[in-house]
Amino acid sequence: MTAPLRDPAHRVSRRAITLWLTEALFGFLLLVGGSALVASWIAASGWSWVPTWISDHIWWLPVVIAVVELPFVVIEPLWRYAVHRWELSGDVVYARSGWFSRQWVFVPVSRIQTVDKEQGWFERLLGLATVEIRTASYAGSSSIKGLDAGVAARLAEDLAHRAHQLRDDAT
Predict the structure, then answer these.
(1) How far apart are CA 70 and CA 26, in angstroms?
(2) Which of 106, 126, 129, 132 could bond 152 through an S-S bridge, CB–CB 3.0 to 4.6 Å?
């Protein structure tokens, strides 16, 4: 019998909630704004093939989209914060992420080819960063998002140092 997966030891930064909320709000505004533009275009163009009951109530389109999407804007950042965790233990990086579906990633340090610390502009404003771990695996790379910038820098440096040591030991 196998033991169940335990949670990785470390949470991402609490500021990641603000990051994910900002990203969700940005997407929400684009979606609702875009649907409002489509609704006004349909109303102004008087498309004859659109049923009358739809064209008469086309202004409901952005309202319905806003009502459906708003709970996700609020819930997603909190849910992702509860799920996203990471750990560097021994010679393995262990990370869990996702919100609708969960992803557990185990990356052997000996397989790491490159480690990058990245910051988007929302991340930079909040003092956060993402650590990108690339291997030769078919799966490509793994990332740990929402880390404090200092923690991300130390983790990237530690991973690069450990990977270099393991490669030197293998020769």
Answers:
(1) 12
(2) 129
**Burial (Cβ within 10 Å: 0-12, 13-18, ≥19) of residue 151:** middle
Domain 85-169: CATH architecture, name and number where available: Roll (2.30)
pTM of the model: 0.84
Cα separation, 16 vs 84, whole angstroms: 10
pLDDT at position 136 is: 79
Residue 102, C-beta contacts closer than 8 angstroms, at least 6 positions apart: 83, 96
CB 108 within 8 A of CB 123: no
CB 25 within 8 A of CB 66: no
